[in-house]
Amino acid sequence: MPRPHRTAVILAYEALSTGDDGRACRDISDAACNAQPQNFLRHAGALGLSKSADGLVDPKLILSWLMTHLGAPAALVGLLVPIREAGALLPQLFTAARIRALAQRKWAWSFAAFGQGLGAAIILAAALALEGALAGGVILAGLAVLAVSRSVASVAYKDVLGKTIDKGQRGTVTGLAGSWSALVVIAFALTLIFFSEARALIVTGALALAALAWVLAGGIFAALTEDEGATEGGANGFTEAIANLHYLRDDPQLARFVVARGLLTATALAPPYLVMLASGGPGAALEGLGALVLASALAALVSSYIWGRLADRSSRRVLILTGLSGAAALVMTLVFAALGWAGSPLAMPLALFALMIAHQGVRLGRSTYLVDMVGPDLRAVYTAIANTVIGVILLASGVFGALAALAGAATALGLFAGMSAAGAFVAYGLKELGDGSDI
Asked: What is the CATH T-level fold of the domain 236-439, as seen in this structure?
């Protein structure tokens, strides 16, 4: 007779999954199949906690507001997204082979979660004790710790998921984690809206909760039942990428795609400057932080499925549309600021909503196009090349944007609007890989 707690686990699993505990698993071991109900709930819990923490420490909005509130220079604020994105991307090229050498990769994810918690704790310490440029520098250091740890977690997660959750349940468990974590972020945004006078306290409390959530996520993930896997065959991703850079010369479509993707990073780099513009400058208190966080969360919620459907028909057209819509959103931001509406409760959240819809399209369009443009034999090679070049472009664009911000946030936003429009123009020259139908 099954133990009561195991019965509860199986009942919860059957209610949340798309299958039942008694069916045969298709591509995981018998031991993993028997442990799948517990593993399913642990995945949903650990990944959801990690995604929730991500939303509470969002560099584009939360950390941008925090650094502006603490009086950090605009140039440092502009480095938040480049450090976060490139820091989560480039280290994968060096760590993938080492993670491959681990028989159980759950430990890599768990320790990476603890590392992200440490990064959040460093940011929290800066928020509580420092001001000005020193606070900005320590926050960037904490974000770097968080981003590098995230890169390790990203490499490890897909392999652990494939070994512990059956093929028909993987999308369900990650989708479940994404759904409940989105509700956490929306609740956070509503708290900021209804208790706006205490937003500094709420933000520091959110940083503490994020650190705790990552530590808890690491503990939950360590309890997964994971088979030992193959440890050979790992290659240094950076060496492989550099050795294969000739594909950029040999395949003009790959080169054009990388240029387009690099220009479209503007949609990710721009939000911190929108926050600065809405705040009115370093040290100023942004009244509408909660509305901005809510607008960003809702944009992801309402647009991802639509962009995904459009990308299945023509990822090239998605890249064009998102470049144009991103540029339009940034021009809208500048117009609102010129009209003196930067501090209004609706103008900047509306502009950010439009910008983040474009950003979601960029993320879906670029991944779909890369998968569709090349066969399985070269897909990993092309991905490594694109990630290497884009990581460098992110850092360069971030530094360039930070320098532009010395002339004002509006100047940086104008630069990013031009980049986004140029990205649409470059994407227009890409080969059509979809069915060619109108969208």
From this structure: Growth Hormone; Chain: A; (1.20.1250)
DSSP secondary structure letters along 319-385: HHHHHHHHHHHHHHHHHHHHTT-TTSTTHHHHHHHHHHHHHHHHHHHHHHHHHHHS-HHHHHHHHHH
Longest dimension (CA), the chain: 72
Q: Given CA atoms 378, 230, 10, 221 in this order, what sign does their dihedral have?
A: negative
Percent of the chain with pLDDT strictly greater than 70: 86
Cβ atoms of residues 293 and 340 within 8 Å: no
* pLDDT (tens digit per residue) in 225-245: 887 765 555 555 566 667 777
Phi, psi for 41 (deg, rounded to 5)? -70, -35
- Residue 129: how many CB atoms within 10 A of its CB? 10
Question: Residue 211 has what pLDDT?
Answer: 98
Q: Where in the chain is CATH 1.20.1250.20?
A: 40-228, 236-439
pLDDT-based confidence at residue 168 (cuts at 50, 70, 90):
low
CB 216 within 8 A of CB 49: yes
Q: What is the pLDDT of residues 394-435, one digit of tens each?
A: 888 777 777 777 778 888 899 999 999 999 999 999 998 765
Q: Which CATH superfamily is domain 40-228 in?
A: MFS general substrate transporter like domains (1.20.1250.20)
Token pair 């123009």 is found at 425
Q: What separation in angstroms does the CA of 115 have from each of 92, 248, 347?
A: 15, 35, 37
Nearest-angstrom CA–CA distance, 62 and 120: 12
- Distant-in-sequence, close-in-space partners of 187: CB < 8 Å, separation ≥ 6: none
Give the span between the Cα atoms of 85 and 58, in whole angstroms: 11
Least confident window among 201-205, 244-248, 278-282, 343-347: 278-282
